[in-house]
Amino acid sequence: MSNSPQKPDRLEKPRLEKAEKIRELGFDPYGQRFDNHQAIATVRPLCPEEPGLDGATVRIAARLMGRRKAGKLRFFDAKDATGRIQLLMSRGDMTEQQWELVSALDLGDLVGIDGKLRRTQSGEVSIFVEELTFLCKSLYQPPEKYHGAKDIEMLLRQRYIDLIYNDGVLDRMLQRSKIIDSVRQTLRGQNYVEAETPVLHSVAGGAAARPFTTHHNALDIELYLRIALELHLKRLMVGGVERVYEIGRVFRNEGIDATHNPEFTMIEIYQAYGNYETMMDLTEAIVTDAVKAISETMVLPWGEEGESSIDFTSPWPRRKYAELFQEAAGCAMSDTEAVKQIAQSKGIETEGKHPDVIVNDLFEELVEDSLEGPVFVIDYPASICPLTKRKQDDPNIAERFELYVKGMELANAYTELNDPKLQEELFLTQLEGQDEEDSMAKMDTDFIRALKVGMPPAGGLGIGIDRLIMLLTNSRSIRDVIYFPLLRPEGMPAAGEE
């Protein structure tokens, strides 16, 4: 591959010529510091209601998105992160040199504007420009309004284009920030401490997932990008941090679909002296507070054109795993033979699998998609929950819940296991039919050592942040709420393509 600069194409060349013209006029086409500018959303309400009256003198920094010409007048649509406003440029309001600058403008340019607010005769809120400052000359030809900004793969690779030219994308990503900030505020209000734990692990534990493997040259050891945050946060509880959480990136070497990206954001939260019911209350508070942060109502739209909605009003129902299974399968999950027959009829592999693994495979097939929610599914088979405390009156049941909304698992929580001997036994015992790389039961000797020091009884919770944002912003793909989702290398064919 050549390292020489690319030659400008036919669309870039005239823009480069305009950049040179700006320099000849004595200005920097790539701008300098531009202080005291105001957000467009702040400026618009300052405009007088009556057309023709001068309003406040304002200063904005924005990108040019549209333009029109009417005699000696030039009209531009300007956009920043808070909204849009019309710019009106008249030769009579500007110096000769400034008017020359106007001729160097292109769509996509970033400009600073000083001028007076005034409403046009048609009622349009406008800034009558007195001074134009170039902040960045754009060399990129914007996509065509109706056709050029629809290539999904191109937009995901060039997210900056998506954010600029597709309405709603920037708003959605800014809502992401509001939601995450709300989560932190809720936890701060309940005295939780935010922690940062290692991304590189020597043992890929805390979840059932395939890790990404890497090599540390200096120590000559294999390491794993973390698949969960759990085990280090529990070590902090052992050390006396009684309420702790982390919002962090985790990595799973698995497929990509509407609800999965190999690199994603999750939050894990642990509360000493709590249990899974404590975590249900906390989950409800986190999600309802997040809804309030971006909406005036607890009922949010889902799907296209009002197709459906999600009512996040609390309290949310709590349904037992066994009851949901029996309703859907028509037999008790303890009826091993019946469960096996139903699973086989659904094309689910049963040979060599532990009965509870078959039950869970069937639960995923028959129940999960039907859970409109929000609904807490509680009390899972203990054998598939190796990090979870059992119910005192029934050791076959684990004190675990999963929160489902629109068939999507949003949260997973346990009453945490803190018996070091039982934990060690569970690490040593792999369930039949479950590969080592897919099992949660990874032996972590230091974690066992920490449990021997003494971890308080606790509740633990994990929430998929990207999925939460999907649900709250009516987004059907996880790619829509991650700034830069993983894509195959540019030019690489999809699987099955030549």
UniProtKB/TrEMBL annotation:
Binding positions (Mg(2+) 2): E409
Protein's cellular compartments: Cytoplasm
Catalysed reactions, semicolon-separated: tRNA(Lys) + L-lysine + ATP = L-lysyl-tRNA(Lys) + AMP + diphosphate
GO cellular component, as recorded: cytosol
GO molecular-function term, one example from the UniProt record: magnesium ion binding
Superkingdom of this protein's organism: Bacteria
Residues given in the record as Mg(2+) 1 binding sites: E402, E409
Biological process annotations from GO: lysyl-tRNA aminoacylation
Aminoacyl-transfer RNA synthetases class-II family profile domain residues: 176-489
Requisite cofactors: Mg(2+)
CDD domains from the UniProt entry: LysRS_core, LysRS_N
EC number from the UniProt entry: 6.1.1.6
Cofactor stoichiometry and binding remark: Binds 3 Mg(2+) ions per subunit.
Chief location bin: cytoplasm
PANTHER family in the cross-refs: LYSINE--TRNA LIGASE, CHLOROPLASTIC_MITOCHONDRIAL, LYSYL-TRNA SYNTHETASE
NCBIfam families: lysS_bact, PRK00484.1
Family note: Belongs to the class-II aminoacyl-tRNA synthetase family.
SUBUNIT field: Homodimer.
Protein name (Swiss-Prot/TrEMBL): Lysine--tRNA ligase
Native species: Rubinisphaera italica
